[in-house]
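Write out the 3D structure for:
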Amino acid sequence: MKSNGELWSYPRGGAPGQVGQMYWSGKHEDRAGNARLISFAADLSEDLQELYRLVSQPSVVAAIKADQKIYGKARLIIENSRQTLEQATGEKLPEWPHIDPTKSLAS
């Protein structure tokens, strides 16, 4: 997505092509930032899924729980991430650390 609202597809091995147009409302200065967020939303979601899976590995869980200086803040960040993933994917996720780290979160 470009800041002027053009929607483009970049297929692997193919030539890019415009696939649509989005019309914006709101402040002009917000358009470029909004376009960047929309265009990278899928990548951000996948990265957050991978990070959630990583912090759910038994050795990482143990390390987080063992360090009382970071445990409270880490748990808050992880819970916020879990809620964000639920909203983004529509999938109910178990509370951390009760997650199967071998299960793929990516749909």
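The two ends are 23 Å apart (CA to CA).
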